[in-house]
Design brief:
The complex is a heterotetramer, with two copies of chain A (503 residues) and two copies of chain B (167 residues). With 503 residues, chain A is α+β, with helices and mostly antiparallel strands. Chain A has four domains: 8-107, 3-Layer(aba) Sandwich (Rossmann fold); 136-205, Dna Ligase, domain 1 (2-Layer Sandwich), CATH 3.30.1490; 211-457, D-amino Acid Aminotransferase, Chain A, domain 1; 461-499, no CATH class. Helices cover 35% and strands 23% of the residues of chain A. Chain A contains 17 helices and 22 strands. Chain A has helices at residues 15-27, 44-48, 67-76, 93-101, 111-118, 120-129, 145-155, 181-196, 253-269, 301-308, 312-320, 400-413, 423-429, 433-437, 447-450, 459-474, 487-501; strands spanning 8-11, 31-37, 51-56, 81-83, 105-106, 159-163, 173-175, 201-205, 211-219, 225-237, 240-246, 274-282, 288-294, 337-344, 346-347, 353-354, 357-358, 362-363, 370-374, 381-382, 389-397, 415-416. In chain A, a hairpin with a 2-residue loop joins strand 10 (225-237) and strand 11 (240-246). In chain A, helix 4 (93-101) runs antiparallel to helix 5. The termini of chain A are far apart. Chain B has two domains: 2-79, Glycoprotein, Type 4 Pilin, CATH 3.30.700.30; 82-164, Beta Barrel (OB fold (Dihydrolipoamide Acetyltransferase, E2P)), CATH 2.40.50.100. Chain B contains one helix and 16 strands. By secondary structure, chain B is mainly beta. In chain B, the strands form three sheets. Chain B has an eight-stranded antiparallel β-barrel. The longest helix of chain B is centred in the middle third of the chain and has 9 residues, at 81-89. The chains are: A alpha+beta (503), B mainly beta (167).
């Protein structure tokens, strides 16, 4: 274990993923260096690491994104490896290269792989060349109406017109058939020109009722690549995943195999090393298309760990140390079912508005097959500067049904007070018929769905509790000396009442 | 003691008194009285209501309590007679709109005197890298805008006032 | 799920096992009734259950053991099933029968099975008749010296002489060969007479360097019996298990199969229904002998859940409801390795003296494949009246090595303050060479082993922390206005120092 | 400030002063001074000592602090100059033996005036269904037995006094 080329890992991240990596390092017998911004001095990753160094002000641009500062800390503390986690510098090829140039081990994808998968256009071309299916369409701008008609006929309706310089839905048109195509092309061009000063528009096939399904891959530097099956991440809000599960409840085995082998092919095409994720759109008709590759550990990696037993963070450490994979594809089997709920400091009833603040009470659920990865505890301040995800609830079951029942049980045990969170929202999802049937798409969360959480609330009890809390607050000095008859007599009377009036 | 207890727009009239160290007698909306056994615990209280057990997390807010039960939060407003009188005197229809989160004001979508519908976005505040619309809680007329674009605001900072239409 | 013959389960227990059962019921969609003594009103099982009823004074004999009172509560609350957990009334055939007679479902072994396995002599005879190997020897008293010599020669030395009325080592003699046998028999008889007024002495084979290995079984009422492999529970103190693991690190596959098939045979011999455990002594020579059957859910059941994926508490609920087993023996495989550490409120350095008291801070470890089953939280008072076990740390790994590394990591994260616990002791066990090699017996914990935990302590840091705490305590009013130069300058200077003086 | 800090029989002499809101300067046994950054947190403190991070749980005891680090408890005795003077004046060799747990006295194995060896069992207390021997912490002479068999005792209740042999 200690023949490793490194023994002290700088973790260039914060929150639950920094805690996750520190745990993996501790299990591998490695020391860790935590870095922290002004607002994170008391954070859990700082307290859990072997070393801790302050790196700057609260805004990420002045701390967690300052690659030079982080590299300097690595040098000063004698760290001989850097793990970037996800987000921040994890897909920054320049930082990866700088770590390597400084003579340290980069626990992530090789810089070339990051670059190869970095741009949407570039990766699309590279994947097409490698025979990986991408969403059919053009990459270059469409020249004229004749070309538009030709391409649309080629790829088949419905299609989507998109502004090349675009974003935010501007210059975007869904077209269902040839009739409206030319006028849609003209208006998309006009809007693109008005919005971005550039009228370039391209066309993609519109994937109907898509699901977001991704394949976890793991590659060593010795030519071995395995996949660890898929994750379904279709339950999204603001295009961000909130609940993931694996296996995907509707994926036929042959599609799984086809998707996985495409993912392995894509991984090999960029000489990948380490843990990575190949994302696909899965159409309602069973067709699937490459979206992008995330060249890092994914937020939702724990559900894959739950069904395969492979500790992906430890695997990253071993592969980065040059070890060949210690298992083969045929050793891996899908064992049961797993669900992750990403717990955000946000208000689902206010369209998921972030809700940073002070966590007053914090109690995680426990018991069989329940895992929580978190970066907070009671008394933690959730800062406004970073992603509002504070914890991940990961639950395993022998079957999907068992897993759902257990996840709901765990959610009921979870207590986070002081800030608003998505816990109640998850409880509502777990009762939704579409979710229970496994029949959902990326459009699952609608404004109506969010309207309120009444069905999982306990309104009357909450009102009683609030009234009692207010009474105790108002009468605080009189707490002990109470009105009415003696405590013990009342106790007996009330116990009797309780027993006999129970419904 | 009497409280008006409001949750999700529904107000309950609660008559409540202590009847022993651990016991409280509660009457809701003139219904049957219930004796509740409650134990104050760190971060909340354990309640046994008519034999049923509930574990509630409690956080004091300006206007009441946030109550967490079985993973779900209930923002409950509690008004005692004195506060109720004050509120009535202050004009029921006027509401100060406050920022629900710390952040930065991106833009103000209305002007003084504008008439807005309930649910209409009036201000955009950026927090945690996302833009969030602050919506009018009631239909009415905007006055007293207290922030400017670019300004940093704390949670609870007053933004503007909306005076409800008279019914 | 709701076609069950019951829907509201009274849990006749407290602490972590009551919490465990309430979780299983919640996942199965069943309501629960918690019962509690005077000192348990604020306990976790009371707060988690659907209903809660006070049953008496703190001593178990006045609350958790008062079967009439518990039955009355079940009737009053409309409970239609009773789960006894382990300990207390769990192996009380009279209580089981009373529950059944009251028209409720007993979630435990049938009264006949409890009786059949209840007495040591009776179960030994029954098992011998069923062809199950028991420790060779006599059950009846030995008459004379000739018989003693004959029996000893039959079963082979070393042998153990035991007082029939005995206990506590009185009248007990280990004899290595024929030379000392007669004199040992005489002195054992004399001591037995003196101690118990009864000179009856019997003889058993002395199992050399034994391990305690047990087989988990599960039987439905339809003739299906499966085993769920073994657990090694040899790490004991005061004859009580403290660390268990599965699979047993030294058990050959053929012995596992033989032991398991004997366990299934024993289970069938008493018409067993539900989850049970058949305990064996495993000799250093690979021989094994039936010890007893525990006709209930075992404390250490979670490690079996971890390697099989079967939720044993939920399985109990289903089997009690009359459902046939939903899997076959061939569906079960040993997946990885699991270890349980029983966290006791006790002082290992004072020969495991109980250490009840107020838990001030309580933080459980988390992350991958770490499970904690507990009945306490910060602010809990561990009462003096009951078993001092407060929690169980259960860790899974793909291999034994990975499991040990992860268990140590989890122990390092675990914080319990205010009372003494066995956490530090576990950390020492996990570093012990005999444990790491898997080569240990029930004699693993010696007085020398316990002498001190220096190797896992952080003495200098603890002294610094205590001195600072004392300083802050003594200077409390002056906390903010501190001596020396301004905070921010010092902050910078110290950060610089930290960075440059790091070893 | 100066403290005598004792753990596992080893006493360290600690010179300690605040040097900023979050910083403390510590000298142990006349060694090199170390600046420690410490943050008081719920239930304990986070320390950074020479770049190394430690998370310590802390519980105040009569004679010092229980410090929990990495799952292991360290019962640390802290004596300031005043307490130290008092202790010296009180006779270093006299120790009141206290019950370490709440329970019931089963039997008293020694009499007033008995000479006992360090580690010898002097009283048996039952707690949690188990009998536990209370052992003499030093060799010496027994006096002032304050309990009787059958009596219930709390944790910390004085049991008897052992006056150490003069060296």
């Amino acid at each position: 274990m200690n023949l490793r080329p490194f023994k002290r890992v700088l973790v260039a991240n914060r929150g639950e993923i920094a805690v996750r990596i520190i745990r993996a390092c501790a299990e591998e017998g490695l020391e860790t260096v935590a870095v922290y911004s002004d607002v994170d001095r008391d954070a859990r990753h700082v307290r859990m690491a072997t070393y801790a160094v302050h790196i700057g002000a609260a805004p990420a641009a002045e701390s967690y994104l300052v690659s030079e500062r982080i590299l300097q800390v690595a040098r000063d503390t004698g760290a001989d490896a850097v793990h970037p986690g996800y987000g921040f510098l994890s897909e920054n090829a320049g930082f990866a290269q700088a770590v390597i140039d400084a003579g340290m081990v980069w626990i992530g994808a090789p810089p070339e792989s990051i670059i190869g998968m970095g741009s949407k256009t570039g990766s699309r071309q590279r994947m097409t060349a490698a025979g990986v299916p991408v969403v059919p369409g053009t990459v270059e701008a469409l020249h004229d109406e004749a070309e538009v008609l030709r391409v649309a006929t080629e790829i088949g309706f419905p299609v989507m017109l998109k502004a090349s310089a675009g974003g935010g839905g501007k210059g975007m048109r869904k077209v269902d058939n040839a009739d409206g195509l030319v006028s849609a092309f003209r208006s998309a061009r006009g809007e693109a020109k008005a919005s971005f000063g550039d009228d370039a528009v391209y066309m993609e096939k519109f994937v109907v009722n898509p699901r977001h399904v991704e394949i976890q891959v793991l590659a060593d530097g010795h030519g071995n690549i395995v996949h660890l099956f898929e994750r379904d991440c279709s339950i999204q809000r603001r295009n961000q995943k909130v609940i993931e599960e694996c296996p995907c409840p509707v994926l036929p085995e042959e599609t799984r195999q086809a998707m996985a082998s495409v993912a392995v092919k894509a991984t090999g095409a960029v000489n990948y090393v380490g843990a990575g994720t190949v994302e696909f759109l899965l159409g309602g008709d069973g067709s699937f298309y490459f979206l992008e590759m995330n060249t890092r550990l994914q937020v939702e990696h724990p559900i894959t760990e739950a069904i395969t037993g492979v500790d992906l963070a430890r695997a990253q450490l071993r592969v980065a140390a040059g070890e060949p994979l210690w298992f083969k594809q045929s050793d891996l089997k899908i064992n049961g079912h797993a669900i992750e709920c990403r717990v955000y400091a946000e208000d689902p009833e206010a369209n998921f508005a972030p809700a940073p603040g002070l966590i007053q009470d914090y109690r995680e659920p426990g018991g069989p097959f329940v895992r929580v990865d978190s970066g907070v505890s009671a008394g933690s301040e959730v800062p406004i500067y970073y992603d509002p995800m504070i914890a991940k609830l990961v639950v395993w079951g022998r079957t999907r049904q068992e897993c759902i029942e257990r996840t709901d049980r765990a959610l009921r045990e979870y207590r986070i007070t002081g800030i608003k969170t998505s816990l109640g929202f998850f409880r509502k999802v777990l009762r939704d018929e579409r979710f229970l049937a496994g029949e959902y798409t990326t459009g699952f969360i609608t404004p109506e769905f969010l309207e309120d959480l009444e069905e999982v609330r306990s309104d009357e009890v909450a009102c009683i509790a609030a009234a009692i809390a207010q009474l105790d607050h108002d009468l605080k000095p009189a707490r002990a000396a109470s009105s009415g008859s003696g405590g013990s007599n009342w106790k007996r009377a009330a116990t009797w009442r309780s027993t006999h009036r129970m419904r | 003691m009497h409280y008006d207890v409001t949750l999700d727009g529904k107000t309950r009239s609660v008559e409540i008194e202590r009847v022993g160290e651990d016991y409280v007698r509660v009457v809701i909306d003139d219904g049957e009285p219930v004796v509740v056994e409650r134990r104050a615990l760190s971060g909340g209280m354990s309640l046994v209501i008519d034999g049923k057990s509930f574990d509630a997390g409690l956080v004091k807010r300006e206007a009441g309590w946030d109550v967490s039960i079985l993973g779900v939060q209930h923002p409950v407003e509690v008004l005692d007679p004195r506060k109720k009188a004050l509120r009535l005197a202050g004009g029921a229809g006027e509401g100060k709109l406050k920022s629900s989160m710390p952040g930065r004001v991106v833009s103000i979508l209305v002007e003084d005197g504008a008439v807005v519908e309930k649910g209409q976005a009036v201000i955009i505040i950026e927090a945690m890298k996302m833009e969030n619309e602050v919506k009018a809680p009631v239909s009415g007329t905007v006055s007293g805008i207290q922030v400017t674009p670019g300004q940093a605001v704390d949670a609870g900072a007053p933004l503007l006032t909306i005076t409800a239409e008279s019914e």
